[in-house]
Amino acid sequence: MTEQMLSPIVPTPLIPRSFTTTESNKTGSWRFLKPRYDEKTAPCSAACPAGEDIARVEMLVAQGLFKEAWETILQENPFPAVCGRVCFHPCEGVCNRKEFDDAIAIHTLERFVADTAMRYGIQPDIARRPVQGPRVAVVGSGPSGLAAAYFLARLGYTCDVFEAKSEPGGILRWGIPLYRLPVNVLEWEIGRIRSLGVEIHCNHRVSSDFLRDAGDRYQAVFIGCGHHRNVDLGIPGENLDGVEEGLPFLERVRAGERPDLSGAVAIIGGGNTAVDVSRCALRLGAKPVIVYRRRRQDMPAFEHEIEMALEEGVELMELWAPLEIAPHADGYRLVLQKMEVAAEEGPRAQVRPVPGETREMVVSKVLKAIGNAAEEAWMEPPEGDGKLLRLANTALVRRDDGPVLVYGGDLAALEKSVAHAVASGKEAAMALDTYFQDGWDAIESKVSACRVGQGPSLSMEMYLGGERCRRNPHVVAFQEINTDYFLFSPRLAQPRLLKEERIQGFSEIDLKISAALALREAERCFNCGICNQCDNCRLFCPDLAVCRDDNPQGRRINYDYCKGCGVCVVECPRNAMALEQD
Amino acid sequence: MELDVLDRDYMCSGHVGCPGCGAAIAMRFLLKALGEKTMMVIPACCWSIIAGPHPQSTLKVPVLHTAFETGGAVASGIRAALDAKGDTETTVVTWAGDGGTFDIGFQALSGAVERNEDFIYVCYDNEAYMNTGVQRSSSTPYGAWTTTTPGQEWKRLRKKNIVEALVAHRIPYAATASIAFPEDLVRKVKKAKGIKGSRFLHIYASCPTGWRIPSEMAIKIARMAVQTNIFPLYEVENGVRYTINYMPKGYLVREYFKLQGRFKHLTDNDLEQIQEMVNEDWELLLRKAGVSMSAAGTVA
Amino acid sequence: MKKVVEGSHAVSEAVRLARADVISAYPITPQTHIVELLSEYCSDGTLNAKFLRVESEHSAMAALIGAASAGVRTFTATSSQGLALMHELLHWAAGARLPIVMAEVNRALAPGWNIWTEQTDSLAQRDTGWIQLYCEDAQEALDTTLQAFRLAETVYLPVMVVLDAFFLSHTYEPVDIPEQEEADRFLPPFKPAFQLDTQNPSAFNQLAPPNVYMEMRRSLQDAMESALDVLDTIEDDYEKLFGRRYGAVEAVQCDDADIILVTSGTVTSTSRLVLRQLREKGEKVGLLKMKAFRPFPFEALRKHTAHAKKLAVIDRNFSFGAGGIFAQEIRSALCNLARRPLVFGYVAGLGGRDVTTDVIEDIYWRTKTSAHPEGESIWIGLHQPAPAA
Hints:
The complex is a heterotrimer of chains A (about 575), B (about 300) and C (about 400). Chain A has 21 helices and 21 strands. Chain A has about 575 residues and is of the alpha/beta class. Chain A has four domains: about 25-40 and about 530-580, Alpha-Beta Plaits (2-Layer Sandwich), CATH 3.30.70.20; about 50-125 and about 475-525, no CATH class; about 135-230 and about 375-470, 3-Layer(bba) Sandwich (FAD/NAD(P)-binding domain); about 230-370, FAD/NAD(P)-binding domain (3-Layer(bba) Sandwich), CATH 3.50.50.60. In chain A, strand 12 and strand 13 (about 350-365) form a beta hairpin. Chain B has one domain (about 20-295): Rossmann fold (3-Layer(aba) Sandwich). An eight-stranded mixed beta sheet of chain B has the order 2-1-3-4-6-5-7-8, with helices on both faces. The longest helix of chain B is centred in the last third of the chain and has 22 residues, at about 270-290. The radius of gyration of chain B is 18 Å and the shape is globular. Chain C has about 400 residues and is α/β, with parallel strands linked by helices. Chain C has two domains: about 1-185 and about 210-240, Thiamin diphosphate (ThDP)-binding fold, Pyr/PP domains (Rossmann fold, 3-Layer(aba) Sandwich); about 250-380, 3-Layer(aba) Sandwich (Rossmann fold), CATH 3.40.50.920. A seven-stranded mixed beta sheet of chain C has the order 3-2-4-5-7-6-13, with helices on both faces. In chain C, strands 10-12-11-14-15-16 form a six-stranded mixed beta sheet, sandwiched between helices. In chain C, strands 1-8 form a two-stranded antiparallel ribbon. In chain C, strand 4, helix 4 and strand 5 (about 100-105) form a beta-alpha-beta unit. The longest helix of chain C has about 35 residues, at about 210-240. Chains in contact: A-B, A-C, B-C. The interface of B and C includes residues 38 and 108 of B. Strand 2 (about 65) of chain B pairs parallel with strand 9 (about 205) of chain C, so a sheet runs across the interface. Chain B: Keywords: Oxidoreductase. Chain B: InterPro entries: PorB-like, THDP-binding, TPP_enzyme_TPP-bd. Chain B: Pfam families: TPP_enzyme_C (PF02775).
């Protein structure tokens, strides 16, 4: 048998057989809709006065990256440990998860990441500009002043803070009771601001002369000295001995005094100060009664604070207005006028007296907490000044003969809250930096370019040109979340001291949570509008057109092959993508 | 999904499936789970085209394209050849559409699984003859429009319950899976791969073109089919051991139907009737799985 | 080793000797004996092959398409309705260039049910791309089957080995069965030029658009055209080892013949007897046995009929609306020649009716005495129809 016979004598058959892939078919040419990564704005971050990137913070917590989460907050807010305790957390009120089961415990998680950093003495790595020429004076070391100094220092400016009192912190130190904010927490936060080179000069009361002379040393002055003048009730007897103002009372208690109270104590007012005062009075042995001229739902105090106060045993008398305070053998006789709702207009109901309906009560002490105002006229932004620039939480005045003045904090903010104070300090820092770099006229547009969503919250990360700049200002609505990717899961219950334990003293009420609980809670977050690398886009792409990439997104769409089906966009659980005309 | 599965693909870009093709997604998941030691039989179906014309192939595993009704038999032959060659590593997989499975290929499939041939038969179900332009098959569901059930002649017959037909053969493993549940799908493929004998997977693969749905809804619709009990996820071992993998959350079938152009002619009465049929099928399945109705939260 | 075996079993022995790897079949009379014996051989270990007992002929062929695509030697056998059911896949096997070998036992197609011999079933598959080789006796059936594997594996075309129902399939004859060693020397293990391979993954038989399809068809035709030369060379080897050869056609006393009987299958054996008798009477008659039908042996046919005046083609088959299929093909093969014999087309023996020496002699005399054929096809031995009730 010949060799020839063993091998085929016909050539290899020409058969339908592949020898190449389909990759030469650029199916991208079919496309008429184009998906792209389009990170959007989470409602929580838009609602946060400090503009914190909450969706990203929760993503980092869920990944166990606690330090990075903390640093992400510090981009926007120098006080995570404070705000994680005292903020009224409007973020949770708009949380999209609320429509599904319960809002994320954002507040608790903020405190968790800050406390974790505190416990382990972690130093943040946050970019800072090199020190540059202009110097800024900050009047008042409350939250707005310290925030202004913090952001200005990060932007490279030298700041001197002047504080009238013996220690820095303002309302944080003197106005918030210890059971809400332990002093070591505050000091840790302030210490970090100092470490940026910010000088805080305590016991240094500033007068209006300072504004005149400051031009020698400072190119700008931030005025953030808050509201410390008490507002009068305008009724007989309000200046009787022992009838005390709320804020000084809180300050005394915070300074360590423990006045011996007993019996019924009336607290007049409906704001946070009134509630704090009542709860302190309770802890000092009194039976506090809050007397408020409107209804509970009209009280400016934070709802959860009212709730806790009532839970602890504070009594609330709604629709009673004080008419007179008179001395009495057992203390004071308080005459009250019954009120009724006249109109449901605005944020609070309009009330009017019910003719002829009054009552009297005897109390051992009266505490007034109906509001405060600026102590001196120069502390308020001048009205009608042509060179006045009003921003959301600050007012700037440019003068021919002295440094630029910036009014911030309670003096100019939308609301009186720590978060608004932070917002104010941040806005001031941005405005001044813009002024120094690009001139007065650039301020408004440059600041408004840093809005989170539709504003007024501002982002320093955006101001500094960080990744957040690329976010679409569109605020993600619940309907835009693909809830198929989420399971019902109960919200973390904040562990607290029992109410019996609480009223024994001034120990912090809210307890720490474990990392395991924090992880579980953070995993509940929808991460509205931001990519958490879930990889659904890559997984479901029928055309394998989503690839891993080194870019910050971690992946990219290969438009050579993407047919524009849009599956990636719909299957993005959190609306971090968009589909648009190609 | 596990990273090793997420990151490996045995399929290329540039295939010619329609935008949003559920069958393309299904194939991707299948091969992720099977890996390279796979030989694939593809009888006539959309995938005969999707895979690309000569000299292309979008798949990175060997493929034998074959005649419409031969899925069960061709795979039997490949398996026999591999056995003859002593290759015990390679998994032989038939990948067929609903027409090739429920209809024309049913005989060869039934024959193969009766012989307990050692292979995996996967039916990717898009509920009609899509490749030829949307003609009804015995998989087309009650209520659907197709080009051969047009207008008021919409299909008034139930979809064949293919899994139960296969289960009746007492094969070692039969399961349903959906492109909207990739982890479940991959788990089942891996499980099937580890079993000897005939294994059947019924994968629900939405077809934007034929179902008259926007392409971006491909996964969403597939998920709703599961959520509404229209396409329950379950598996059956040895023809008797039923496990239901997904318990419903009370979605009504109308939510699924109203999103699809192929059902747009249905009235509220029709939808109520369909809901009853779905409930009936679901209850039957629950009985087989030994799950009580209240535990399963059946839609009333 | 000589052994008296049934024609069917001669095929089975050849498949055993070929060491087929995968056999797949579905029962149909009169093919069944072939695979029954093979099934036995598989179960008792005589043959180390996978035997797939599929649920239809269609699946039998489909399974072999799978197995052959995976690169192994394959065999099936069928008949009549079974072959008709396979039809689609016959195209597939050839188009995929798979060297599948099939024994096809000629049987008439229903209705009415008829299990007896007729060639229409296989001839109806003439355009599927299969090589078709018609056998005359059990020895040839064995030899052709063994050769078929080598032919198929050389030209990458499937081969149909065709034998008459009962007259051959169920008839016992002495057959020289080669020893395994000798068979192995003739037929080396199959080394496929292409196959399903996870190391080198290719897709086979995918979409072939107009820009490539025609070239593929031409490639198949090229293989067909080479097949007769290849068969010739294979027969050289076979003859060296076993001393037997058949040729694509066999010409008996054709050189000086005025009339040549053209036959295929078992009619050939009967015709040999008639030929001897007529020659004894001084008739100048020859016999041309057509073994290869696909590819069609144009050259050999023309060569051996060059000097004849008339051809008497006996067709045990029929193409309705045309004529006997061999006759048609022979006419078309000769029509362009300047000098060509007249072709008389006879239809005989349909549905298993006996084609006896008398029938063949009758055909001869009719041919001799007619100046021209009395029609396109001349039906032999038709009974008068019974009057309608």
